[in-house]
Structures are given as structure tokens and as C-alpha cells.
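Next up, a specimen:

>
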Amino acid sequence: MDEQLKQIGERLRGLRDVLDIPAEEVAEVIGIGVEKYELIERGEADITISNLMKIAKKYGISTEELIFAETPHMKSYFVVRNGQGVSIERTKAYKYQSLVSGFVGHKADVFIVTVEPKPEAHVVYKNTHAGQEFNLVLEGKMELYIGGKTIVLEEGDSIYFDSTKPHGMLAVGNKAVKFLAFTVE
């Protein structure tokens, strides 16, 4: 994972260089201090998918270009075979597999997210991003925290919500949870 963080940091730095953007501006876009942002560019701190989505939208590139260094090429359709989508392990507990990475100008981000259980976890990191989000649990069980509420979702359950509200989740039990995450503005 450390190598992936470094690569994302290099791509963020490259974006700033190409567009001649100060680090302070990008830090402001995602609502963090410039010192923290500079740690991200050096690959010494993690950045959330939602913050990468904010940066991509602001500067007119695809989220996949920042995450995977892949530029979409397909304009009519894009097929992802079972287990074959480009993926990134954000932390030891989170893995994101993109299902739209190859489609030019996609209007939504769609991922299969796998979250490993963390029985000792007491703090749930919450994030926000513009638009709305749809989650469908494919396997396992999770607790989803949205704006002060806790909602338990099991296999086959789904939820559609305002993603500008702080939200985060945990896998429940000793089994990973796998869910479809669909975000759109």
C-alpha cells in the first residue's frame, strides 16, 4: 500500500505542476491544511477516495487517473469481467475496485468496495462528498453511519443517501463486507 500512496502523491504533484496550482489551493479544495496535503503528495499520509473525487472534479480529470494512472478510452461501452476491474487497497481494511475506469466522461463513480472487519475499531472515519451515493451489500454485514444515525445493512440490503452528510462504515462480525458503491453528483 505504501507504494500506491506514493504513486497517488506523485500524480497529485504532477497535476499541480501541469496546471501551475499551489498546494494551498488543492488543500483548500479538500478541506485540509497544507501541511497535511504535502504529506499526501510525499506518500506519507493517506487520502480518501471522496477527496480524490473532489480534486478530479475541480480540475477536470477522472478520479481513475489520480487513483490508477489510467485514462479512460471507451466511449460506447466498457465491460469489466468478474474480478478484473482495476483496484487499489486504500488501507489494509479497504479495497476499491473500479467498474467504470475505462469509460470516457463517466458521470458516476462505481466501485466494488471490500472492507475487512476490525473488531477493535471504536472510531469510524467519516467523509463527505458532493452528490448522492447508493450502496448495495453483496456479501457480509456492515454498520453505516450517516449524519448521527447508525444503519445496519446485510446482504441484499441497499441504501441511497445524501453524501454531503458525514458518512462512514464498519464491517460487522468476523467476515469482510463487500458492497457496490455508486456515487453521482
About this structure: The mean pLDDT is 85. The CA atoms of residues 78 and 103 lie 6 Å apart. The beta strands are 87-89, 94-98, 108-115, 132-139, 141-146, 149-154, 158-162, 167-171, 177-184. Residues 2-19 form the longest helix (18 residues).
